[in-house]
Amino acid sequence: MDGIGPLSKKLFSAAKEVIPGGVNSPVRAFRNVGGEPFFVRRAKGSRIEDVDGKSYIDYIGSWGPNILGHAPTVVTNTIHEVAKSGVSFGIPNPFEVEMARTVCDWVPSVEKVRMCNSGTEATMSAIRLARGFTKRDLIVKFDGCYHGHSDSLLVAAGSGALTHGEPDSAGVPGDFARNTAVLPYNRPEALEELFAREGEKVAAVIVESYPANAGFVLPRPGYLELLARLSREHGALLIFDEVMTGFRLGKAGVQGIEGLSPDLSCFGKVIGGGLPVGAFGGRAEVMDQLAPDGPVYQAGTLSGNPLAMAAGLAQLRELARPSGYPRLEQLGAHFEQGLRTLLDAKGVPHRLNRVGSMFCLFFTEREIVNVDDVMKQDMEFFRKFFWGCLAKGIYLAPSPYETGFLSLAHTEADLDETLGVFDEVLGGI
Ligand SMILES: *Cc1c(COP(=O)(O)O)cnc(C)c1O
User: Fold this and answer.
1) Ligand 1: does its nearest atom lie under 6 Å from the Cβ of 119?
2) With 80 as the cut, is the pLDDT of residue 163 above it?
3) Any idea of the CA torsion for 78, 81, 87, 91, to the nearest 10 degrees?
4) Ligand 1 neighbour 208 (Cβ under 6 A)
5) Residue 1 maps to a domain
6) Which atom of ligand 1 is nearest to 211's Cα?
7) How far is CA 19 from CA 8, 22, 23, 129, 252, in A?
């Protein structure tokens, strides 16, 4: 008994007839927890209501974008207002300038920024730009870091001594994958070895500054600095993929927290206020290589459209208030403290990583260094925990590899209610 209501079940069978796997993005299919998804009717604040009328406290927020909660009035009002004057022009509009100015003001390493329509587009374009700028082909990425689904980045670690990758999806040519080296995250020696061997070939190192797509993993002290130093010494660009962390962990994301200055940064999710937006930016010298000024081609019919820009700006303005990031940290700390107390009291083996409004609970005692450790947690325990919580109205990510998100719409009462449910569910496993 998975607790999914009859209307959701019916919709999912109808979906499977006409949509591959019944979903438009694989994680939504609930395969990692062995079940079927529910369908949403509406959502407001911290709560989601499914088509069968069951309500959940949501800890995903559309996988990151909804940092103000669902359907925040500042964003929905903006969308209504702006839409009256047109939703897309394909001609420059003033919101694009305001958005670019905001990003450059908030993120010191970004001198110029180009808008696009998804995180995938942002990383794909940043990679091409880095290759065009350095006139080199090799990209370095890290096992367990997700950068969207473009060919050069859907690459898994190769076997044995070879660091050059293998396709991580059917349809990705081996020749593409060979231009991407995949290293274990948080292992300085692997990085040093690769740069010693082929540092002169590396166009760019792309990293999820705090990896958040295979659990939520934090860099060991000095690791990101090493990455920055080796890239600089070998003339490779450092790309921070802050699609998840950007504008969520503070105005300047992880680079602001760590005091680092990547050559290029990628954004998405929060920057679009729930509309499809991505962005990449960085040093002017590099960004000026983009068309129409430079030889690196990149474009988008809907890029910078007024609706998406205005929605994103409305969200960012709200976050910039004193009631923005400090409040998210306050909520995060409250949740973390309650969760630690509960898990210790229950004697449940666990690790908990939390920064600001992002958290991930691992059912293992292992130190979480990288994705290898994430994969060794107790998956069966996670599944039971997930379904137990869902049945009692708490919606956690349907996969042990995902990060949880709090929003400004969550209250201490929501968090305490959630901890109460955790207590009951853990008691029953
Ligand atoms: C979500 C995500 C992406 C891909 O963004 P889409 O908008 O889904 O294409 C890329 N990088 C990171 C770090 C992400 O979390």
Assistant:
1) yes
2) no
3) -90
4) yes
5) no
6) 13
7) 15, 5, 6, 34, 38
- For residues 313 and 391, state if they share a domain: no
Ligand 1 atom nearest to CA at 118: 7
pLDDT at 161 over 90: no
Residues 195 and 340 in one domain: no
CATH number for the domain spanning 63: value is: 3.90.1150.10
In this structure, what token pair is assigned to residue 414? Answer: 């929501």
Is the C-beta atom of 213 inside 6 A of ligand 1? yes
Could you tell me if the CB of 268 is within 6 A of ligand 1?
yes
Q: Which domain holds residue 111?
A: 73-319
116 & 180 share domain: yes
**Residue positions annotated with a catalytic role:** 146, 241, 269
Average pLDDT of the residues in 77-95? 97
d(CA 37, CA 60): 14
Domains held by the chain: number = 2
Mutate to test the pocket of ligand 1, among 152, 213, 243, 255 (most ligand atoms within 8 A of CB): 243
Instruction: Report the pLDDT averaged over residues 168-183.
Output: 92
